[in-house]
Amino acid sequence: MTAAAGLGTSASRGAAVTLVGQGARIVLLLTGVVVLARLLSPHDYGLLAMVMAVTGLADIMRDFGLGSAAVQARTLSRGQRSNLFWLSTGTGIVLALLVLAVSPLLAAFYDEPRLRGVTALLSVTFVLNGVMTQYKADLQRRLRFGALTGLELGGQAVGLAAAVAIAAGGGGYWALVAQQVVQLAAQLVVLLVVCRWLPGRWARDEPVRPFVSFGANLVGSQFLAHASNNVDSVVIGSTLGAGPLGLYNRAFQLLVLPLYQINAPVTRVALPVLARLVDDPPRYRHYLLTAQTAMLNLVSAMLAFAAAQAPAVVLVALGPRWLETAGLFQVLSIAGFFTMAGYACYWVYLSQGLMREHLHLSLVTRPLQIAMIVAGAHWGLYGVAWAYAAAVALQWPANLWWLHRVSDAPVGQIWRNGARTVLVYGWALVASAAATRWLPPGSTWPALATGALALLAALALAALVVPAYRRDLRTVAGLRHQLRGRGGPPAAPGAGHAARPAPVRTPATSTAPAARPPHHPVRTPDEEPR
C-alpha cells in the first residue's frame, strides 16, 4: 500500500469512527438537553453561563497550544513529551488558582454571591484538562480516533448521569457544575489506563521554546474569539440577570449543537490529513473542498430544519417554559450559516501554519463584533442576537479577502461552495417554514413532519435546478470513496513518489518562505459550546 493510500485509508477510518461516535454524542447531548431542561430553570442555566463566559478566557490558555504542538510535530522525544506534560499541568494549576482568586470579584460584578462556590468548583476543571492534554495528544498523534471518541463519549455519559441524579434530587444549578467536573475526571481515569504512560522528570536538554512561541499566536486569536463570542452573555447577565441569560444561552446552545458536534470531529480528522498534503497542492485542494462540501451540507440540513420549525423543536426539546428561545434561535441561525461557511478558511489557517495572519485578522474583526454586540444590547435580548448575527455575517467576506492575500488556497471555490449552501438551504428553510405557517397552534408533531417533508421537497427541487448542488450531493454520497483517494486528482508531475505525504515539520525545524509558513500545531476551532 502506498503512503497516500495509507493516509487515505486512515482518514476514511478515522472519519467513520469519529462521526459514528459523534452521532452517539449528539444523542447523549440531546438527551441531556431534554431531561435537564425539565428539571432545571432558566435561572440555573444563567448562573452557569455567567461563570463560563468569564472562566472560558482562562480555559483558552489551559495548555497554551502544547497539546496540538505534540500532535503535529514530526518527531517528539520522550523528554519533550514529559516537558510538555509538566508545562501543561503547571499551566492548569496556575489558572485554577487564578480563577479561584477572582471568584469573589466575579460574584460582586454580577451581584450574585452563589457564583463564588460555582467558580471555585469549576476551577478544578483547569487542573484536569492540564493533566489530560498530553495523553489526548498521544492518542491523536497515533491516529487512535476510536479510543479518543470512546473516552469522550464515556466521560459525557458519566457526567450526564451525575447531573441528572443531582438535578432530580433538587440540586439545581449544582447539577450543571458537577456535570463539567465529573465528565473530565472520568476521562482522565480512562486515559491513564489506556495510554499506560507516566511522565519523567524535566529534561533540561529537550527544547520546548518553539512550541511555546507558537502558542502565543494561537492563544491570542482564541482569546479574541472567545471574548467576542461571549460578550453577549456578559452584557445580558450584567444588565438583565440570570433568567434572561438562561433563555439566551439555551437558544445559543441549540445553534451550537449542530455546528460544533459536526465540525469538531471533521476538523479532528481533516487537519492531520491537510497538514500532510500542504506540499501537494492538487490533493490538498481536493481534500479541503471535499471536507468543506460534506460538512456544509450535513450541518445546513439540520440547521435549516431546526430554524424553520424552531417553536416545535423547542417545545419537544426543552418544554413550554422555554418557548421564548425559539425566536432567539431563529435570529442566531443566521450567524450559524455564516460561521459554518467560514470553517474551511479556518482549516487553511491551521494546516498551513498561518496563525499569525489569523491573529492579525482577529485584531480587526473581533473588536468590531464586540462593539456591535454592546451597541445591540440597548434593544434587549433580540438586539444582542441580531448584532451577533450581523457581526458574524460580516466576518465571512473579510475572512475570504484576507485568506486570498496570505495563502494560495482555492478561495474562489471556497466562496462559491459557501454561498451556494447558504442560498440553497436558505430557500429550503423558507419553504419549510411556509408549509407549516397555517397549521393551528399546538400542532407540534404535525408541524415537524410537514416541515421535514417540505424541506426535502425544496432540496429536491434545488437539485433539479442547480447542477452544482447535484455535484455537492454526489460528493457527500461518495465521501468514503473520496477520502480513500480514489476520486482525487493525480499528483503533480515531477513529484517523485507523488503519493507520499509531506512530512510535518516541528516548530523547531520549520524554515519555510513567507508564502507558505511552516506547519504549526493547532487545536480545534473556537466555536465551542459555552
TrEMBL record:
Keyword Cell membrane: yes
Primary location class: membrane
Residues spanning the membrane: 24-41, 84-109, 115-132, 153-175, 181-199, 294-316, 328-349, 445-466
Domain of life: Bacteria
CDD domains xrefs: MATE_tuaB_like
Membrane topology term: Multi-pass membrane protein
Region (Disordered): 482-530
Compartments it resides in: Cell membrane
Entry keyword set: Cell membrane, Membrane, Transmembrane, Transmembrane helix
InterPro entries: Poly_Biosynth_Transport
Low complexity composition bias: residue spans: 493-514
Similarity comment text for this entry: Belongs to the polysaccharide synthase family.
UniProt cross-references to PANTHER family, sorted A to Z: LIPOPOLYSACCHARIDE BIOSYNTHESIS PROTEIN WZXC, PST FAMILY PREDICTED COLANIC ACID TRANSPORTER
Protein's UniProt name: Lipopolysaccharide biosynthesis protein
Record organism: Cellulomonas dongxiuzhuiae
